[in-house]
Amino acid sequence: MGFSTSLQGQSSHEALLARQDAEIKLLETMRRCLTIKVKSDREYATTISSLTMQGKKIERNEDLVGSLVVQSWRDIMDSIDQTAKLIKQQADSIEAIVVEHITTLYSERRRARKIYQEEQTWLNNQFQQLTDDVARKKLEYQKNLEMYKLMRSRFEEHYVKSGRVGRKLDEVREKYQKACRKLHLTHNEYVLLLGAVTECEHDLRTCYLPSLLHRQQAIHQEFITSWKTILQDIVKYSDFTTDKFQEIHRRMQKAVDSVKPVEEYRDFIGKHRTRPASPIRFIFDENLVDDTSGKLLPNKLTVDNLTIDWLRNRLTELETSLKATQQNRQNPQYPSENNSDSKISILDYSREREELRLRCQEKRLQRQVDVIRAALNELGCEELPLGYDLSMESSFTDSPSISKKNTVADIGLFTLRRNQRFMTIFRSPFKSLPLINDTKDGTIRSSSEGPTSKADNTLQVAFRGISHLTTNQKGNGNGDLMEEEWFHGVLPREEVVRLLVTEGDFLVRETTRNDECQIVLSVCWDGHKHFIVQTTPEGHYRFEGPTFPSIQELIRHQWLSGLPVTSRSGAILKTPILRERWELNNDDVILLEKIGRGNFGDVYKAQLKTCKTEVAVKTCKVTLPDEQKRKFLQEGRILKQYDHPNIVKLIGICVQKQPIMIVMELVPGGSLLTYLRKNASTITQQEQLRMCKDAAAGMRYLESKYCIHRDLAARNCLVGYESIVKISDFGMSREEEEYIVSDGMKQIPIKWTAPEALNFGKYTSLCDVWSYGILMWEIFSKGGNPYSGMSNSQAREKIDAGYRMPAPENTPDEIYRLMLRCWEYEPEKRPHFDQIFTVVETLSQAYL
Ligand code: ADP
């Protein structure tokens, strides 16, 4: 059963035309709907992408640095962004492939309908023509038959009348014969025509029409095949459960799993660590008892006739309160916080809080009871002689060393911090240090009274420039300022902020504004405040208050007077923050010869003045903008925490003046890349394995410190004695488990960088593992260019498509296998550096 046998009739023909019209209409509808879908998918993707941008703005919030929740949120935002991109890609595909296909099918469908209709019309015309021909012949036949009959009757009539002869009879006979011939001819033609027409009609009906319909059926089915492909493509490009989506979903899940409440505040605590709160000292003001002729003594209860009753009553009162408090503590009746809306049960800690409060209250009462009891006991509760005093010293002071009379009022606890370690000293700011007197001209000078205690000697260390200035007041403060340990030179503001952690911490530094050098006092006070030291026309220095001939004296005044630097800021100087061990004087370093050129400036071989040690010094061009100088110092900040034979060592940074410099151990063989190329003909396989091992050891150490190098390559490794390899160039490094790049991917070493870092800006130590694979390749190709002959983008595309570099000549199989593992597309499948180290170490021993 098909078109050819079942759809021959006229009504079938009309139905087939109507069906085609409906299909064409359906194609139009589909095209319209899909166009709307593409548009709305794109709008959706755009909205999602921009909301993820919004969502990621939190990154800039300094206070959340190191938060795992933030990291997880950023990952989720990235993943949602990726989802939006995929949705957009699918919308693009629907437009480019599906809508296009529908358009083509639509016009073909219309063409096919037209051809079908034309053929049907022609066929109907043919049938009509045959019928017309027969009808025409039949009419002619009837006419000739009438004529014949007429002529015959005329002839018969004459024949009888004329007696069978005569001219008229001949005439009639002739006409009769003619009509008879014509009739016979027409008869024959009619017979022939009927045969031919019957044959033709049979052909058209039984061959032509079925074949036309058969062809139509094939065309229709072919269309349906195309249509099915279109529907299949719609399904394909609307599938949000593909591997790519699932991968994104897995990544989001992983981001959530990485949130660990126990670790969330680890970095925060590290960054904001402060000394434990120092006690608030409540000290008896001795001025109060000046006028009492010795009857009242500081820190002693006066038990005499005037006070004994009051003391006893007080004792009873206190004992009652104490008892009540103790009972309360034993039988607590805590306010219920169960009806709170909070879903976090830990917030309901009223029991503990109440318990603590009661315990404090109990202690306070107990202490007072004890003191009064001790005083009364001592007198046996008898009538007291007038003016009898009991000392409270031992009850109210923790440290016996400061409980001696006369020292209590003067001595405050004071700390100086250096290299994050604390040393505690006592200070006596107004008695032991040089007195400060106002002179008539309004400036303030130090008196010649020298330091008197051990504590003051320590202070002298911190302020050693001052004593010098006291004897040589002509000296311009800045020359000696360099000597001051709290003077940090051109240390950038970020570093300064990092050093000042506790309220009252301060230091002095130099900055340049509009080409003018300014001295700045930076203080940790309600955030961080930076005060520019003002210069008077006489060349003296001041903030808001009095002027001083040197900056040191100005700072000392601010510190010792305890007055706010400006009344608006209220900032008070408490603890001078001394230079870190790393901060060297620029003059401590003698540059000898240029040995290299870095991104920020030249690299020199140099000598330390003090110990004559040879060092390498990276300089930062004076002309670079501050932002670049900060980036330059980033390397120093990272390196100073590390100590490993395969990591280049930091000796110090010089920020006292320009050019700022980073001083490092001198690694005499220079860059590994140059070394490999220079010594290509002599390097042995064993040496190559050892280089890989050294680099793996260094990287294993960095991974354990959560440091991501981000630029591991032979050009950034150095070669030392006995060709030891050291990892260097930490300019791009980050101390994070994972680092997301958000400020574009400028200057990325594409051929060394892992795909997830290139595609999503997501860096982990496993990206360093990828780069380590390239480094191994460089080592075994003796300084070859990776992906030689390919541009960066070609290499990137090929890697995404699965291409990996072949092994360089003479690479041991195990090493090449390791390279391939380092280049696994999925970072989780790559080995960590401790595994890499084990493999390389085992191999290098096998090759010994
Ligand atoms: P940057 O990080 O600014 O690009 P590099 O660390 O790459 O600078 O140093 C540039 C060049 O200086 C290196 O290729 C190397 O030759 C030389 N160099 C850098 N540091 C040292 C060092 N500690 N010992 C010896 N040479 C060094």
TrEMBL record:
One Pfam entry name: FCH
EC number(s) reported in the record: 2.7.10.2
Active site: 711 (proton acceptor)
Family matches, as SUPFAM superfamilies: BAR/IMD domain-like, Protein kinase-like (PK-like), SH2 domain
Start-end of Polar residues biased regions: 324-343
Chain intervals for the UniProt region annotation (Disordered): 324-344
Domain F-BAR, chain residue ranges per copy: 1-264
Name of the top EC class for this enzyme: transferase
PROSITE patterns linked to this entry: F_BAR, PROTEIN_KINASE_ATP, PROTEIN_KINASE_DOM, PROTEIN_KINASE_TYR, SH2
Nucleotide-binding recorded as keyword: yes
Catalytic activity: L-tyrosyl-[protein] + ATP = O-phospho-L-tyrosyl-[protein] + ADP + H(+)
Record key words, sorted: ATP-binding, Coiled coil, Kinase, Nucleotide-binding, Phosphoprotein, SH2 domain, Transferase, Tyrosine-protein kinase
Residue span(s) of domain Protein kinase: 589-848
Residues the record lists as binding ATP: 595-603, 618
Domain SH2, first and last residues per copy: 486-577
GO MF annotation list: ATP binding; non-membrane spanning protein tyrosine kinase activity
Any Gene Ontology biological process: morphogenesis of an epithelium
Family, per entry: Belongs to the protein kinase superfamily. Tyr protein kinase family. Fes/fps subfamily.
Protein name: Tyrosine-protein kinase
